[in-house]
Amino acid sequence: MVDVVTSGTESDPIYDWQVGDRHYTLTSSTFTKRQLFPHEQTLNIHGEAAQHPFSRERLENERDALLYIARNTKIPVPRVLGWSNVDGVGCLTMEALHGAMLINILDDDSEYLSPADKVALERNVNTFVYETVLPELKRLRSRTLGQLSGIVFPPPRVSAFDDRPSWQPKVLTTERYVYCHNDLAQQNIVVEPKTLEVISLIDWEYSGFFPPEFEKPFWLDPSGNGRVDEEESRRLVALLDESRDIDITITLFKRVKSKLRSLPDTIFSLVLWIRIRSSRVLSMVFSRFNTR
After folding, report:
1. 165 has which bridge partners?
2. Strand ordering across the sheet containing 89-95
3. Which of 49-53, 151-155, 214-218, 238-242 has the weakest average pLDDT?
4. SS3 14
5. Going by C-beta distance under 8 Å and a sequence separation of 6 or more, which residues neighbour residue 192?
6. For 21-56, how does the pLDDT look when each residue is reduced to its tens digit (9 = 90+)?
7. Torsion of CA 173, 174, 177, 178, to 10 degrees
8. Is the backbone of residue 94 left (phi > 0), alpha (psi -120 to 50) or beta?
9. Who contacts 191 (Cβ-Cβ below 8 Å, separation ≥6)?
10. Between the CA of residue 149 and those of 169, 204, 222, what are the distances in Å?
11. Which of 4-8, 15-19, 161-165, 277-281 has the highest mean pLDDT?
């Protein structure tokens, strides 16, 4: 349960609430999302402040992402109105959106929709995601893994499984990373209840350049949890750890091929199918070609 405190006036109320490591304030024209001050932080069973990795970096990343997406795509996102820093607490202010989260509208007890309206809404959402969001994001490519600032923090479905304190940035020789929202869930799609049209995609804290497999169809999940199983989490971790080695291996073979032009192309085509562990062995075998 989230406690919402209302202030302001009857004609222009102000709503305040807190979830996790974020404090939210909503007025008729603005929506503010900020870090917590020390006295607001929740305590664990040891009486210590609960840890929320990359809390500041995630909020800064959302600010950067909103500006980047608005500038480079046709995806509707909240307009950034300001950023402030008060006693080390980051504060992001955006325009208020006059709509409802998809997960609330599709709720079985929702008073918004008839069965026919629900079908129409689901069609609108799928069209929005498949024809606007995914194509626009796939156009944004990079050789560098991670967030726009250059650091790397994967989404919770990865970090909950592998809680290493930091992830190494990786730079490939080709632009194989695509920009991923990383949480395309029903609670992050905002809809105009009367027209049933999508008006915005929100919550870009974990977005960044990642392998394309990171973008999952969570908007199709009625629970809105956006969770994956352990096997899938392992696969995503492997993608983060393997990507650099694969690219280095491909580059290495191109160098070797330039030195051994007499070998047929099929040999090098087959090499690209070798698993990542083998790539490290091959790197040692062919290392002398890099020093010649």
Report:
1. none
2. 5-8, 13-19, 22-26, 30-34, 89-95, 80-86
3. 49-53
4. strand
5. 98, 99, 198, 199
6. 999 999 999 999 999 999 898 877 777 777 889 999
7. 150
8. beta
9. 99, 100, 101, 102, 105, 121, 124, 125, 197, 198, 199
10. 11, 14, 33
11. 15-19
Task: Pick the closest to residue 180 from 151, 160, 206, 203 (CA basis).
Answer: 206
Q: Which residues of 183-220 are buried (b: 16+ CB within 10 A; e: fewer)?
A: bbbbbbbbbbbeebebbbbbbbbbbbbbbeebbbebbe
Closest CA to 249 of 281, 221, 203: 281
List the structure tokens of 44.
């664990």
Q: Residue 11, CB half-sphere, CA atoms under 13 Å: how many?
A: 0
What length does the chain have? 292
Q: How far does CA 74 lie from the centroid of its chain?
A: 18
pLDDT tens for each residue of 185-213: 999 999 999 999 999 999 999 999 999 99
Predicted model pTM: 0.80
If phi > 0 it is left, if psi is from -120 to 50 it is alpha, else beta; for residue 158 that is: alpha
CB neighbour list of residue 6: distance below 8 Å, 6 or more residues apart: 13, 14, 15, 16
Q: Please, which residues bridge with residue 43 across strands? A: 49
Residue at token pair 């090499």: 271
Rounded CA-CA distance 51/49 in Å is 6
Max Cα–Cα distance, the chain, nearest Å: 82
Contact 248, 176 (CB under 8 A): no
φ/ψ of residue 277, rounded to 5: -65, -35
Cβ burial of 145 (10 Å; 0-12, 13-18, 19+) is: buried
CA atoms within 13 A on the CB side of 87: 5
| CB-CB neighbours of 48 under 10 Å | 9
